[in-house]
Amino acid sequence: PLNQPCQNCFCVHCESPQELEFWFWLCWALHQTARFRPYLYGSVIPFLRIGDFKAILFAASQARENKTEAFDKGIKTLRELDAYELALKQKIALVGQLKHSIAAKCL
Asked: How far are the Cα atoms of 15, 63, 83 from residue 4, in angstroms, in the given order?
């Protein structure tokens, strides 16, 4: 899932930030666990039909209703890991700048 729409994507509109977060992380989890893969069509550019997308999404949301607490805890952990990953990427970018600066001083 993306935070901003792009060409040939499905947009999900939500009424609240909490609802948006729920659907975002549910889609993210479905994608990471390859739940969409059997439904992909296309030989050059794989795509997912909107009917299949809706069916998978709603089936997963129904199954999640029995695991609300575990899902909420998982979302919290994923948010923390996402923030940690962003911090690491920023540090890696700084290391790259430092390497460039040192290389420039050597010349």
From this structure: 16, 27, 18
